[in-house]
Amino acid sequence: MVQTTIQDSKPQGKIYMVPMNLGDVEHSIFLPPYVLEIIRSIRFFIAENARTARRYFLTLGMKEFLPDIQIFEMDKHNKDFDYSQYFDVVRAGNNLGVISEAGCPGVADPGASVALSAHRTGIQVVPLVGPSSILMSMMASGLNGQSFAFVGYLPIKNPDRNKQIKRIEDRSKELNQTQIFIETPYRNNAFIQNLCQVLSPNTLLTVACDITLPTEYIKTQTIAQWKQTKVDIDKRPAIFLILKKR
């Protein structure tokens, strides 16, 4: 008779997609207690920027844990980078957190590559509740939340920029789909003026900036109305949404 010895093995860990604050606000405003508890229990992280991550940990009251925390940095310039090389700690039973520079990792963010590597290697990916400027601006805009698309940054120079703006507006009308995009903060004011010059008067534009901060500003109105509105969001992180009705 063959005897089999069963050895206890530590269960495989999980990969947690860890939300980051969108600005200098108290963590209790944007993180539920159970999420904070999970983050504080993790000792291994993949981060877009290690220094930013460590500063974030300090705001979460994790100073005493910093010496024990190991951070692997993302390779943002290589979409095909194999993050599975960092997963040995997960296989050994440790949880691994993924942190971007702001908001939710994996949403318009290189953290998506980490999640995909995890799925390919059979590791569970767990999203944690936190602020996403893209989703929160969509929630508050009043535009079509049944169909929307994030298109990222538009070209910087004309005529490519104006062509892209018109293309996005046409797509919005054809599909009845909200189009969401972003701009470098110091170009915000000029960008709004550009949109007012190119978009149709009846197209709806939402300007959302400083989301979750005390200075939060979210406003939706037609381009014709924006042309009559004085707004200054220079150097403030912002999201822009448009919808042209059929």
Q: Features of this protein?
A:
5-stranded mixed β-sheet, 5-stranded parallel β-sheet, alpha/beta, 30% helix, single chain, disordered N terminus, 246 residues, 10 strands, 20% strand
Task: Describe this protein's structure.
With 246 residues, the protein is of the alpha/beta class. Helix content is 30%, strand content 20%. The protein contains eight helices and ten strands. It has helices at 33-41, 50-59, 88-91, 111-120, 133-141, 160-175, 188-198, 223-226; strands at residues 15-18, 44-47, 70-73, 96-99, 125-127, 148-153, 178-182, 204-209, 217-222, 238-243. Strands 3-2-4-1-5 form a five-stranded parallel β-sheet, sandwiched between helices. A five-stranded mixed β-sheet has the order 6-7-10-8-9. Helix 6 links the parallel strand 6 (148-153) and strand 7. The longest helix has 16 residues, at 160-175. It is elongated. Residues 1-8 have low confidence and may be disordered.
Write the layout of secondary structure elements.
Blueprint: E1 15-18, H1 33-41, E2 44-47, H2 50-59, E3 70-73, H3 88-91, E4 96-99, H4 111-120, E5 125-127, H5 133-141, E6 148-153, H6 160-175, E7 178-182, H7 188-198, E8 204-209, E9 217-222, H8 223-226, E10 238-243
Parallel strand pairs: 1-4, 1-5, 2-3, 2-4, 6-7
Antiparallel strand pairs: 7-10, 8-9, 8-10
